[in-house]
Design goal:
The complex is a heterodimer. By secondary structure, chain A is of the alpha/beta class. In chain A, 52% of the residues lie in helices and 11% in strands. Classes of the chains: A alpha/beta, B alpha/beta.
Chain lengths: 424, 426
């Protein structure tokens, strides 16, 4: 997309990210402590309440991929002995580290003062941070979030997580940052989170309108960016979501569709629900395959991996540790297959979808396992035909444009034919 | 009569089907795909119209001259086409020799002239033979194998002063040019000469004239296949091959509910409803493991024709278990097995089973195998693949009716033509 095709909020976000990476580069001089953590189950409000800056390795990996740099990093990791089948986020991050811990924007990333690992359904995260701990020789604290195997968080699970935060996370953060826990500051951060979350949900749910003013997959990647990464519970985050919401409400008032790499998508022939993360190495090309067919995504599960706010959850300043437990437990990655099916079927209905698509990721076992039965079950429940396509997160070798385009075109033509009732 | 055309631009072959307004097949044409996609599509289309026009004259020629006259006319037509292409190839090779080292020119030119004279003589004999041996429909294969054989002999003539490698190199350099330049191979251009060659029978000429002047106006064309985006058609005239294979299989076997297509570089498992509408599908991902091209590499590696693989595999008594269908490693896998002392037919049987096992996984993912089940694509012509499929289907799904049409390679083009027909009617 050229600058002229980008929304104000996208430009704002670009500046925020650039500033964040600059600040991280300066951290060794400014003395700001640095905590590495992952998107699902990230405790940004808590980290920030200690005056620490978060670094999110998978965001760095995907940002590198969007800038066309992941292939070289992955090659470096494979040279260091990591197999072709290992999660490509991990390999990209390891490659970045080997290249001198370079950030996606080219600045240097500081070493972590603490690795804060919250386990929310992705087993690889544990191994990833073990690798980083070896590399940096720094402390690591492990927050164990019980998997929602029964589809819900029991009170005991909630207490278990809150207790870990109180008894191991907070002391670890105090030690790593040299600052005492400031509950009032945490509450204030949580207040700002909740306000931004309200705006985000309004933006995501605007896709119920026709035409949808947003693309809830490709576009939503940008919309969830700040709240999933370093900016939840910050002034900048709050301002970003206010701007974004105004921007989207403006489009609703004017009856406009979202900005896409193929221009503004006002004519929307297919409304889709999508499961699975996008491909980052060919993000715009991938998006164009949808936009060129006048397909808009109205809801996606990927935009919930960093929090399922549209299902009603808000960070609650009145119960700081309990609310963080609820947050971690409710992340999309921590939900069982029936809950994921339920979400998808509900989206298909509430957002009046014509189609439903799974983009499965080659190098991600924990997310991709079970996606085919999910597809069949959503089809059965909604009567909407599903499609299944595959590529990868940040390994460009797994992206076959002709193959994906072929499947997508076939799928859209199949939707047409079914709609017409005869092979048309 | 107006007609519609479906073109399937595949990775290995390009197919065309011509239908009349009632959906009856008038003609089919096939050619090998090549870098010039437009030309491949045009050639397949030309071939389909040739077969359509032959169909028009068929009954009348048979009536006045008997079936042998019809067959002879067709052989004469093929001979004219062959001569045109040989002449083009000959002039390319001549030009190539002219660009080479001056000292070698005369010897090369003489050897090539001998080779071409003998190919032409062999082709004349083939025309005279009422039952000529089977061979590939594609010029590059038919001319190539004759050229290679005769060039080897030419190089062995004492004092020839040329090497076989050099002669073969000339062919390789020039065949690509011949294939990517337009040549007049149509009915109109060649039927007159073919008729002259067969000798004049008044009734036959009248039938040919009628076929020649018959109006076969095209009211709609739909393109599909791997290269469909490169076809010079507007977007509405392009259909996904998934939809075309589904509809094509439905047209051939109306009770079909599951379709498996194994083509050159992809495998498709498709579920269709009672009207041939696709309800679900799965395809191999970017890796072409276990597709037709894999068998092609295996054939090359064994120095066999692709069509010989299946029959040899059927002779196996103890198939080898092979799990990899990686096209890149096909040669290595094969050599490894041979070095272990496995028999060729047993290895081949294992390879065919591995190809089908991979297809079974896609079928399962697309929703299983319903009755009836139709197998299409180039690999459906391979008897060992068919046998492996029958076994695995019975093992996994119980009794299923498996349909394989003799024209299965045209399924995608047939579906495309039916889309064209529906579009033209709308």
């Amino acid at each position: 997309m050229s600058e002229s095709e980008k929304d104000l909020s996208m430009l704002l976000q670009k500046d925020m990210l650039a500033e964040h990476y600059r600040r991280l580069e300066a951290a060794p001089e400014t003395g700001e402590p640095v905590v590495y953590t992952f998107v699902p189950g990230n405790l940004t409000e808590l980290i920030r309440s200690f005056g620490a800056l978060p670094v999110l390795p998978e965001i760095n990996a995907l940002q590198s991929a969007m800038r066309g740099k992941s292939q070289g990093y992955i090659a470096a990791a494979e040279k260091a002995g990591h197999s072709e089948d290992v999660c490509s986020y991990v390999k990209c991050d390891i490659g970045m580290l080997k290249a001198g811990n370079v950030s996606p924007t080219g600045t240097r990333l500081p070493k972590p003062d603490l690795l804060l690992l919250s386990y929310t359904g992705c087993y690889t995260f544990m191994k990833w941070f073990e690798l980083l701990r070896e590399e940096y020789r720094c402390p690591m604290v492990f927050l164990q979030i019980p998997y929602q195997g029964d589809g819900e968080q029991s009170p005991a699970m909630r207490q278990y997580v809150a207790r870990q935060i109180r008894e191991s996370l907070i002391p670890a953060l105090e030690k790593a940052t040299g600052r005492a826990f400031d509950e009032e500051r945490l509450r204030e951060n949580l207040r700002m989170s909740a306000a931004a979350e309200d705006d985000l949900v309004a933006v995501l749910q605007s896709a119920k309108k026709t035409p949808s003013p947003i693309d809830a997959y490709f576009g939503a990647v940008y919309y969830v960016g700040p709240i999933f990464s370093a900016f939840r519970g910050t002034e900048e985050g709050l301002a970003y979501y206010r701007t974004l919401r105004q921007e989207v409400e403006g489009r609703v008032a004017r009856g406009e569709g979202p900005t896409t790499p193929s221009g503004r998508l006002d004519r929307q022939k297919y409304r889709l629900v999508v499961e699975g993360p996008p491909n980052w190495t060919h993000f715009r090309e991938f998006w164009r395959m949808f936009a060129d067919e006048e397909a808009v995504v109205v809801a996606s599960t990927y935009s919930k991996v960093g929090g399922t706010y549209d299902l009603g959850f808000r960070h609650d300043p009145a119960d700081p540790l309990g609310t963080l437990a609820d947050y971690c437990s409710g992340c999309y990655t921590n939900r069982n297959l029936p809950s994921r099916v339920e979400m998808l079927a509900r989206y298909a209905e509430e957002y009046r979808a014509d189609g439903f698509l799974i983009h499965s990721v080659k190098s991600c076992n924990s997310f991709s396992a079970g996606q085919l039965p999910m597809l069949r079950e959503v089809e059965r429940r909604t009567g909407i035909p599903g499609a299944f396509i595959e590529s990868d997160l940040v390994d460009p070798r797994y992206f076959s444009a002709a193959n994906l385009k072929n499947r997508l075109e076939s799928y859209f033509q199949m939707l047409d034919a079914r709609k017409a009732g005869v092979p048309a | 009569m107006t007609c519609v055309v479906g073109i399937d631009l595949g990775s290995t072959t390009t197919k065309a089907v011509v239908l009349d307004e009632r959906g009856e097949v008038l003609g089919r044409g096939i050619t090998n795909s090549r870098s010039n996609y437009d030309l491949a599509a045009e050639l397949a289309r030309t071939e389909a119209f040739i077969s359509a026009r032959f169909r028009l004259l068929e009954r009348e020629v048979e009536r006045v001259g008997g079936p042998e006259t019809l067959a002879r006319l067709l052989r004469a037509f093929r001979l004219e086409q062959m001569f045109i292409q040989l002449a083009t190839l000959g002039s390319k090779i001549e030009a190539e020799i002219g660009r080479g080292a001056p000292g070698q020119r005369d010897a090369l030119a003489a050897a090539v002239a001998r080779v071409f004279a003998r190919i032409r003589a062999e082709e004349e004999l083939r025309f005279e033979d009422p039952h000529p041996p089977e061979r590939s429909d594609f010029f590059r294969d038919a001319a190539g194998s004759a050229y290679a054989r005769l060039a080897e002999e030419a190089a062995q003539v004492p004092g020839a002063g040329v090497t076989f490698d050099r002669l073969l190199g000339l062919y390789d350099q020039c065949i690509v040019q011949v294939e990517n330049e337009p040549v007049e191979l149509g009915f109109r251009e060649n039927i007159g000469k073919a008729l002259d060659r067969t000798g004049q029978m008044p009734g036959v000429r009248a039938a040919v004239d009628a076929a020649l002047t018959a109006d076969l106006g095209v009211s709609a064309t739909v393109g599909t296949g791997y290269g469909r985006a490169r076809l010079p058609f507007p977007k509405e005239q392009i259909r996904s091959e998934i939809l075309c294979h589904g509809l094509g299989a439905h047209v051939l076997f109306p009770a079909t509910r599951t379709v498996l297509d194994i083509g050159g570089q992809d495998t498709k498992a498709i579920q269709v409803d009672g009207s041939g509408i696709v309800t679900s599908f799965q395809m191999n991902d970017r890796c072409a493991a276990g597709c037709g091209r894999y068998l092609g590499y295996i054939a090359d590696e064994m120095n066999m024709g692709l069509h010989e693989l299946g029959p040899l595999a059927l002779e196996s008594r103890r198939p080898v278990k092979i799990s990899s269908t990686c096209t890149v490693f096909a040669g290595a896998e094969l050599r490894e097995r041979l070095s272990l002392g496995e028999r060729r037919e047993d290895i081949l049987a294992g390879l065919h089973r591995a190809v089908i096992l991979r297809a079974m996984s896609l079928l399962a993912r697309s929703g299983g195998i319903a009755d009836e089940f139709t197998f299409t694509g180039g690999v459906a012509r391979n008897p060992a693949a068919v046998r492996a499929l029958e076994g695995l289907v019975a093992e996994n799904y119980g009794a299923r009716r498996i349909n394989i049409s003799a024209d299965s390679i045209y399924t995608g083009a047939l579906g495309a033509a039916h889309f064209a027909l529906r579009g033209a009617a709308a």
